[in-house]
Amino acid sequence: MSELDCPALKYYDFKPVEHGRVCPRYTAVLGRSDDDGIGIEELDTLQLELETLLSSASRRLRALEEQRQILTDWQDKKVDKRFLKPGKEADLSATPRHSKPKKQKLDGKEYEFNEDPQDMPRNPKNDAPNRFWASVEPYCADITNEEIKVLEELLKPPEDEAEYYKVPALGKHYSQRWAQEDLLEEQRDGARANDKKKGIMGPLSELDAKDVDALLKKSESQHDPPEDGCPFGPLTQRLLQALVEENIISPMEDSPIPDVPGKDSANDGASTSPRSQGKAFSVPHTRSLEARIKEELVSQGLLDTEDRPGTGGDSEDEVLAELHKRQAELKALSAHNRARKQELLRLAKEETRKQELRQRVRVSDNEVMEAFRRIMAARQKKRTPTKKEKDQAWKALKERDSILKLLDG
Amino acid sequence: MTAQVGSKSCVTMALVSADTKISELLTELHQLIKQTQEERSRSEHNLLNIQKTHERMQTENKTSPYYRTKLRGLYTTAKADAEAECSILRHALDKIAEIKSLLEERRIAAKMAGVYSDSDPPRKTMRRGVLMTLLQQSAMTLPLWIGKPGDSPPPLCGAMPASSDYVAKPGDKVAARVKAVDGDEQWILAEVVSYSHSTNKYEVDDIDEEGKERHTLSRRRIIPLPQWKANPETDPEALFSKDQLVLALYPQTTCFYRALIHTPPHRPQDDYSVLFEDTSYADGYSPPLNVAQRYVVACKENKKK
């Protein structure tokens, strides 16, 4: 009996609106003759009442369509009436559309929007999460062999490393070089001027670089000795000065006075050497003398060995000091970098080892699941799992455990 | 009637011709209403029949194939009747909308020309109470959107937002965000004067002080008000739902404030009940106040804050 009853049927109350009660203006307008018509001031109220009527009629229309569909479905197939409901909703829209061409007018107003309701910017597509994960991906991805290769490549010392630790030889002093350059330039200018004036004078003006050097040397040799007036080396002079008594100068002034006894001989010697003999005085072995004196002084412990002044000279060379400083810095930095790279390589290698293990864990996970499925299948068929299946399951489990232990260790 | 309407405003020839048109339309409307009633009486008989059949089926407490077939037949007829009735009702409502738009056009034209008809007294002299009544009236008569089965509510129906390229027409009411004298930003009720496509800016008049304050605002600062009421009985999805943040016109003012929906309307002519954000109350919200569908719009700011 109950099967016959249609449970979805709602027996709606389709009573129409009592317009006499609910819509007084509407009723009043109905009673009027054509001549009386409607006033503008009545429009608002009429609109509301007509809307009420329309709303009720539309509701009735929907309900009728729903109930009618239920009846139809129920007649067609008596089972599963209720499940048909959702599908029916879709049909609902199709049927009444044709029956009302008159609504076109109102549609006209909303025409432009009705065309594409999907275009309404309600939910703009948000791809920010995807972009975020894409940016994070490289930091979480597995380490590949290529990356390790790159690291190893980086660890090799660069070929040009030695280049940076070289100390280039000290060149000519800039004052000399500049002097030479200036002279050359002037000669060239002069030659050009001469060329213009007298072509014949050409050979005379053609002084080349050798001549310049010679000229410079000549000027140097001319300049140096007068500065000092002494052919002896600095050590020789110092030694001599140390040996000669200090008051030597005052007696020299009164040298014409002969009555200073005991000092005459010394005076004479001193007076003759620098002054009287002057420039004509030339000593042949000044250089070797200087060297021997130095040697002797060093061996006597009166003078430090040569390298001391050497380092002293270095410290005076600002450029060299700076170069050494920078090289030291570079050395420290590259050593630090190397240590970091080595550490990174070690970690990367360790990680790849772990990755391999994880890969194996995944494989063995699958194996375990496979075994589990097989046993479950057996159980569903109400038979005890075979020994083979059990063994496989145990094997898979044990393997997985061992790998996990490795991974933890 | 025609004579009366004509005498009300014969300021210009254009207005007169508009008046003739309006009176014609009113006659048509009258006819349509009469037809509506004919349609309704026709279907009434059938509906009565359905009711009787229902009663009989329910007393017998079973559904015999005979009744099923009979009921199906009755339903089909009633459905056709209802469709016809809806159609003619829509037609009548369209007529009303047409007349109203003509009246509105006339009002704007008159305003532009600086001429005011008797039926539309100059706003400058309007008292606040009158303005409030007018606003309420226009909210009440905002057309109700009643879709045919399967139609989904269009943009600007209830809570449905306007499409992104929507441009409000002159005379449309909008919520406009303006800077007040003290520098505060406020959403006011305004009427569109014009829209410039080159600058994407609206010119709007403050509804409260028409003519005194004209604002030029970028379209971001304009929210068009709904052009249809959503029908809670048929399209509840086109209404704001409870606790949703909205901008609502505070009763007896012409300003929109942030509010939460307390209860959505249940019937077409019902208003929203909203709780305004109000720090003078202990819980930060005013007690529930009624605001018409027309004056409740989505609050754009909720994303920022």
UniProtKB/TrEMBL annotation, chain A:
UniProt key word Transport: no
Principal place of residence: nucleus
Keyword rRNA processing in record: no
Family matches, as InterPro entries: Histone_AcTrfase_su3
Superkingdom classification of source: Eukaryota
Chain residue ranges for the region called Disordered: 86-129, 187-206, 243-318
Intracellular or extracellular location(s): Nucleus
Ranges that cross the membrane: none
Name of this protein: Transcriptional adapter 3
Species of provenance: Albula goreensis
UniProtKB/TrEMBL annotation, chain B:
Pfam families, A to Z: SGF29_Tudor (PF07039)
Boundaries of every SGF29 C-terminal domain copy: 164-305
InterPro entries: SGF29, SGF29_tudor-like_dom, Tudor_SGF29_rpt1, Tudor_SGF29_rpt2
Segments forming a coiled coil: 26-53
UniProt keyword annotations, A-Z: Coiled coil, Nucleus, Transcription, Transcription regulation
Record GO cellular component, one term: ATAC complex
Keyword Coiled coil: yes
UniProt main location, coarse: nucleus
Name under which the protein is recorded: SAGA-associated factor 29
Species name: Albula goreensis
